[in-house]
Amino acid sequence: MKTNKKYFLLSLVAVLTVTGASIGALSFAQTTPTLSCSIGTNPVSVGQAAILTATGGNGIYGWSGQNLAVTNSAGTQFAVSYSAAGIYPVTVTSAGQTATCNVNVVAGTVTTGALSCSPAVQSVNLGQVATVVATGGTGTYVWSSPDLSIANSGGSGFSANYASTGLKTLSVTSGGVIASCDINVLSGGTSVIPVVVTTPGLPNTGGQ
Q1: Are 44 and 50 in contact (CB under 8 A)?
Q2: Which domain holds residue 200?
Q3: Taking a C-beta distance cutoff of 8 angstroms, is the pair 169, 145 a contact?
Q4: Same domain, 151 and 193
Q5: Distance of alpha carbon 194 from its chain centroid, rounded?
Q6: Does residue 14 belong to any structural domain of this protein?
Q7: What are the tens digits of pLDDT across the range 87-136?
Q8: Reduced to 3 states, what is the DSSP secondary structure of residue 22?
Q9: Domain containing 200 — which CATH number?
């Protein structure tokens, strides 16, 4: 009888141990949030920036699409613009998941009053200089950005480099009208969409 009691107690302990281990494993199991992609404004006009935002996943994102191959973009946001009307799918991946944003580009150009900032979107590597140009307005321009400390922000052209990756926005004000350019700052080592702006004598007035 004592032997049977001994085996019963040992079996009960084993069951409780296995059950406890299983419950512990379940309590520590982590589920990766579902990945999704959203567009700030859709549709957009030809040349207008579309801001894409990723949520979920593990916080590390790779963006890809037509004429776009960026695998080391930092942060949850990315900007794109297109020179022709159409539907452009942009895919974001994270933790083995995939989500797609369909950017609808319609004919026509966007103007912010008579003021514009170009290029609307560009991608540069960390430490590389990004150059933007303002046209229209009154001819007097003031540049600003939450990521920069700007002491002499006048002039129609502006160039800056950044000390951190992610989506950056440069705004220009003239005659009470505001226009903006979006800059994807990448960690480096990837091919980005080339943007060529030819404006001689631009001051390098930004840094950080």
Answers
A1: yes
A2: 111-208
A3: yes
A4: yes
A5: 17
A6: no
A7: 999 999 999 999 999 999 999 765 555 899 999 999 999 889 999 999 98
A8: helix
A9: 2.60.40.1080
pLDDT value of residue 113:
58
Please report where in the chains the tokens 């309590």 appear, as a residue.
Answer: 27
- Angle value at C-alpha 198, between 127 and 159, nearest 5 degrees: 35
Helix (H, G, I), strand (E, B) or coil at 10: helix
Q: Are residue 36 and residue 87 in the same domain, yes or no?
A: yes
In a shared domain, residues 162 and 135:
yes
Strands 68-70 and 62-65: antiparallel
Which parts of the chain have pLDDT scores under 70? 1-29, 67-74, 109-113, 149-153, 189-208
Which pTM does this prediction carry?
A: 0.64
Same domain, 93 and 123: no
Instruction: Count structural domains, the chain.
Output: 2
Domain CATH number, residue 77: 2.60.40.10
Strand order in the sheet with 86-94: 44-46, 97-109, 86-94, 62-65, 68-70
DSSP symbol at 188: S
Task: Report the alpha-carbon distance of residue 199 to residue 135 in Å, rounded.
Answer: 12
Beta bridge partners of 87: 104
Token pair 């299983």 in the structure block, residue: 22
Peptide bond into 89 cis (omega under 30): no
Backbone dihedral region for residue 178 (phi beyond 0: left; psi -120 to 50: alpha; all else: beta):
beta
C-alpha to C-alpha distance for 109 and 62, rounded to whole angstroms: 29
Going through the chain in order, the beta strands assigned E by DSSP cover: 36-39, 44-46, 50-55, 62-65, 68-70, 77-80, 86-94, 97-109, 116-118, 121-125, 130-135, 142-144, 157-160, 166-174, 177-186
